[in-house]
Amino acid sequence: MSLFDETERRPLSVSELTSQVRGALENRFASVWVEGEISNFRAPASGHWYFTIKDEAAQLRASCFRGANSRIRFRPTDGLQVRARGRLTVYEPRGDYELVVEGLDPVGAGALRVAFEQMRDRLAAEGLFAEELKRPLPLLPRRVGVVTSPTGAAVHDILRVLSRRTRTVNILLVPVRVQGEGAGAEIARAVAMLNAHHRAAILSGRAGDGVDAIIVGRGGGSAEDLWAFNEEEVARAIRASTIPVISAVGHETDFCIADFAADVRAATPSAAAELVAAREDEVAAAVDALTRELLRTLSYRLMNERARLQEAAMSRGFDDARARLNDASRVTAELSHRLEKLIARVRESARKRLGDASCRLSPAKPAARAARARTRLALVRATLERTAASRLEEARARLGVAAASLDALSPLAVLRRGYAIAEDEAGSALRAARETREGRRVRVRLGEGALRCRVEGVEGV
Hints:
Blueprint: H1 14-28, E1 32-42, E2 49-54, E3 59-64, H2 66-69, E4 81-91, E5 96-106, H3 111-125, E6 143-148, H4 153-165, E7 170-175, H5 183-203, E8 213-218, H6 232-240, E9 245-249, H7 257-261, E10 264-265, H8 269-314, H9 316-360, H10 364-409, H11 411-416, E11 421-423, E12 441-445, E13 450-454
Parallel strand pairs: 3-5, 6-7, 6-8, 8-9, 9-10
Antiparallel strand pairs: 1-2, 1-4, 2-3, 4-5, 11-12, 12-13
């Protein structure tokens, strides 16, 4: 007897059975939540995640494809307790059933918190938050870039604080979205844009148009609202900035990745504005304090000097000085009177001498003196002419004797008697035949004129 009915005699293939099981599973478990511990987590280059969810008694294979895991804000790790949402299916080549994960949340901690801690630890390990990379804010910034929403409360808080505490800081607002999909990319681009503007201003010689500091922030909100400031590209853009960055996100108790990457963290946007204006307030307060101290010191010195002057005026020494001054005034008056009398006597004496000289220079006396002077001049002139003629004759005689003697000794006289002088090309007299050679030119000077000759031969050498 057959063990099977006729209708059951045709067996199912493995593929058919597996397909039916898959259909049954997918229909029965189209959406299911499973809680357990992750193990054997793998993330190959394809971008998909493969892991196992297990508890004390069983385990379940799970897959999370790239399109789904891009929406999960944290990265699973072995040992993490999670709650997974997905559908059951059968992987037919191996006949294994598995969970296709579409959502994943940590158990006991929010996904955002886990993602925050993972990114914080990873970037800290890279050295992105190192204290030696932090730069101080400028002493007196002139222009501050603000990266925030143009309609949010943060920008109004910043403007209100700056308008109250400083008159020298200008604001350069770069409007961005501060929450939602793509907000992080906008914030990163805004930071890079301010740096590019600053570099262009410096290179073109417009240092006054540069940006001295950047405030990146927004008002408070939920963890989801603040998540744009936890994105990796925002942190890297802040760290790559050549301009000091102040992170002012949320309220005092809110922390985000941007706070760790920034050069300075401010508890709120208003606190960031106070940091920017703090130095100006400090400088103004210091100047006011120094001014008040200087005025007090001057007042004290003035009172002391006035008191000393009053004491000197009331002292006996001041009376002595006044008496000595009066004595000096009397002596000066007496000397002035004596000087006036002396000037009058000198003036009278000079007038008398002038009268005597006028009498001596009357017209008759100068005429007689001039006649006598002309007579003496004529006598002296005659005497000089006789003496000069006599001396001129004596000089002519001596000159004639000297000329005769000179003519007798002159070589020209010797030449006129038939002798000659031979000179070389340089004009030097030749005294011996060996001083020249055959073929050289010589000049022979005669009593009258000279001859230019060539030496045909040298004798007596």
